[in-house]
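pasting for the record
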Amino acid sequence: MTYLNAVILALVQSATEFMPISSSGHLLLVQKLLGLDDVPILFDLILHLGTAAATIIVFYKIIADIAKGLWHFIASGRNRSKQSGEKASAKLFLYILISTAATAALVYPARDLLESFFRMRVRFVTLFFIVNGCLLFVTKYSQNGSRGVEGSGIFFPILVGSAQAFAALPGISRSGSTIAAGLFSGAERSFSGIYSFLISIPVIIGASIVEYVRAGRAVHSEIDAHILIIAFAVSLSFGYLALRLLMRTLAKGKLYIFSFYCFAVGAASSVIINL
């Protein structure tokens, strides 16, 4: 792992983790182009923790409001009537837990099959890029809903959590699939985007912990600490910029424009994987 390779992979991860164009699919293709048969587990974990940190920074006010509202909701008990903001915070926190549970319930039993798509069935990435493009394109016909967390039922977190599990396939975008699920459930655009990235935080951190434990000593591979620091910094900083850009694009109802890019990459990937 060279410094250049680390920067390239960190840039790809940070940009594509938030843009609805699939970070996993892009990383597979870039690793192929760079001739990297295997990326150290610790390096991969650092990249994901960098993008998780970027998400926390962008939405820190919302996260703080959720924590504060949840605390007041619990502390008030039956002593007084709950304020609407406190109820919304508690409901949003509950929904995040439900979405996370739905994702884990679908992904964990199928983890070996999913890993095979990355290791032995890289050709499927072409198909999944096309599927992802179709998913994004149909959002062009979604109406801007009016539902926030207050107007959403239990079906919403289950649907979005299931969409997040679907994005475990290389070439399927986590942000794209979850935001699309939110839009078609009638949620408001900005809420769909915010919710999509809020539920990514426990999933990324949880998956990193599970992967760290499963890998055991393999995590402690010989890799320059400076490379890890640079990779984390690049993943965090460029991830922050990419997330800000996506939220602006989503607010304009232009998520579908990324579908054309996915179609192009899907076509190009069929050539790249045969190099």
